[in-house]
Write a structure and sequence with these properties.
The protein is α/β, with parallel strands linked by helices. 40% of the residues lie in helices and 14% in strands. The protein contains 15 helices and 14 strands. A seven-stranded mixed sheet has the order 4-10-9-8-7-5-6, with helices on both faces. A four-stranded mixed sheet has the order 1-2-3-13. A three-stranded antiparallel sheet has the order 11-12-14. α4 packs across α12, α8 packs parallel to α9 and α13 runs parallel beside α15. The longest helix is centred in the last third of the chain and has 22 residues. It is globular. The structure holds 4'-deoxy-4'-aminopyridoxal-5'-phosphate. 4'-deoxy-4'-aminopyridoxal-5'-phosphate (PMP) binds next to α5. 4'-deoxy-4'-aminopyridoxal-5'-phosphate binds next to α5. Belongs to the class-III pyridoxal-phosphate-dependent aminotransferase family.
Length: 462
Amino acid sequence: KKTTSNGTDPRAIRQWDNEHFFHPWDSMGVAGMDRVIAHEAKGIYLYDPQGRRYIDGPGGMWNVQIGYGREEMAQAIARQAMSLSYHSPWAFASEPSAVLAKKLADMAPGDLNSVFFTTGGSSAVDSALRFAQFYNNLRGKSQKKLFIAREKGYHGSTYLSATVSGKERDKSFLDTEKRLVRFLPNVNPYVRPEGMSVEDWCDLKVQDLETAIVEAGPENVAAFIAEPILASGGVIVPPPGYHRRTLEVCRRHDVLYISDEVVTAFGRLGHWFASEPVFDIVPDIVTCAKGLTSGYLPLGACIISDRLIDEVSGPDRESVLFSNGYTYSGHPVCCAAALKNIEIMERENLLEHVRQVTPKFQARLKAQSRFEIVGDARGMGLVGCVECHVPEGRGRSEADRLELDKDIGARIDAKCEEMGLIVRPLINMCVFSPPLIITEDEIDEMFDILERAIARVEAEVL
Ligand code: PMP
């Protein structure tokens, strides 16, 4: 009988997990999903208690940059926990949090030099949005409160970060603060009308923002929030020039630009932050989390431009608290993990490595389009999505086709799992965001499995 390292029978783990762990994004009414039990992990691989090996296609949740099981990371965490396990971030300074704040300020674009530490991505976005409103209150523009966000965007699961998240399915049975937000339609070039050029599509999408601001009244709009690439909405890469032009629109209307780099920062696109080197913008606020610690411990940050801070602070200003914070803001052990993560990424030249293996990753990804059930394969850097659809016709009713369509990602996932690859699709979209240490051979191994799985599902449904 196999047991885990703590001696618990895997059947008991499965049972207690099904009965008592209310998982995030869990579906009500489905009693127990019988998830694979993650037992150990090393490099890009996860192992279950039986020792079966799986490539981690989504890289945890887009966050395991340096790979699993790094001993020096465990040691850095242990050392920090022994010497200073915690301090109040309000009352004290400490070496790990100060050194990390300086590092992030150096890495972040332009004059973004004030680092507000949070517990993860949602709380980083929440803090960025609250800062945007706070900033306007201090400037005497307290009517500037609205946020502009985008369909298919995802920014988190606090009330405010969920409010600006634009995935319809996520909203159906949960409430959000609708009066605070306006959504722009999908920016995905894949859905542009037939015959329209990508340039015209870009014009239209920039115009969407301008129209939304003008219709709401610029005097009422606080900020535009955007992921450089909409990650969990299906790895949507906006058309070239979109970021720079939307930033210009924001500047014209005194609207802050918040770039949510929770997925794109820390090497996913071959740079520490993607905003400036990849998309040619210096936003007003950047949020990050995930790859900051490679998932070894939770940590996020919201990094704010000096220009904004200068505008609302200084000797002749009334002293006003930014009354927002967390017990674990700048947690020393999490900051020590982030510093070790960055040190490893620097020492192993991981940014350069990502740029080197990206052509292979993107070529293998885009080659999936040859399947009839693949509608689109898209991505950038080491992130990609294969969007699947059951084609129309073939003597099947439209209702049957739609039913199959909903299930198609799960079918591919099940076949991949049998062959040692974790996919975990978003309905009909299989997303890939592997650890950045992945080699070209491992990229081949991953896509070889995916291809075999898609071919088998295609044979079943066509
Ligand atoms: N922003 C983006 C772009 C994300 O992808 C996510 C997480 N998927 C979040 C924010 C929320 O981060 P967290 O889950 O760490 O709260």
